[in-house]
Specification:
434 Repressor (Amino-terminal Domain), 3 domains, 6-stranded parallel sheet
Length: 339
Amino acid sequence: MIRETATLADVARLAGVSKSTASRILSAAKGKTIPYSPATQKGVRDAANLLGYRPSKLARGLTGSRTGMIGLVIPTLEDSFFTAATTIIEGELAKKGFNVILSNTGGDSGLERAKVEDLLGWPVDGLVIVPVQQTGDAGLFWELWQRNVPFILIDRTFADTPFYSVTTDDHAGAVMAVEHLLSLGRKRIACVSARLAVSTNRARFSGYKDALIRNEVLPDAELAAEVSPTRAGGRGAMAYFMEAGDLPDAVFCFSDLMAIGAMEVCLEHGIRIPEDLALIGYADLDYSGLLRVPLTSVRQPRDLIGLTAAEMLLARLDGKAPQTSEVKLPVELIIRESA
């Protein structure tokens, strides 16, 4: 009669091997070479299947071996950029036998710390994190580094640190966007950013200013709005520009969500896009080309971000140093009807 809760000792006894041998065979990653004959491996796995044995991931973690779990920490589920990248990460890690625990910080640094500590308490084998950067402080990540916790940062990183990260060339992306607007004859180019404590926003703001200066256009503080990275934020920024009286002839938003909010306000008030106002977003979300006015946007390679991050983490878990600690992927401008 099959017991309801089989133990590793039961499996070892039925297979006629030691408990440690059974443990090593059952915990080995798929495809990994281990020093046991095919017959021995088959005997252990057959015994485990017959008894309905399922290894306790928590117990494995407590004994110091891998739990097969990875923590994935993102600031929001609203922005499909993050969900798309994390879907790729989850799929790549699953191929190697890892399960992903997803945590949403809501863009709050205190919650980020709590979520990370909670994940380490399971424990997880490693972490992939989009850091909140509410203040730009890297304290939490220095702590993880000093504790030898394998982690990879995606989309955002911290300057002058040894942290492993996968980002995109946001300075270059902003330059592309602004120079395209200038090539259309636009001179009053506004920018809509989120918090400049976030590394991506700083890089995009720097690119925005550099492109203007390079083309002998003086940046105007009145044409810069810092808002939440949401549709509501974009709506608020566009309302601000309208109330200021002298409407810009182009707006570069640091996310597609903000650009969509700005577009909604323009269409509600009879501001024609692109005739009266050219509009560019950032990220190139799946639906950005399906809007009432298809959105010109700087495309980030979400799939490649996810794939690269997964490969870097797997290398670290295998004790291998990735070829570089900082990967910066190129972006491209996708031109549509809005600009």
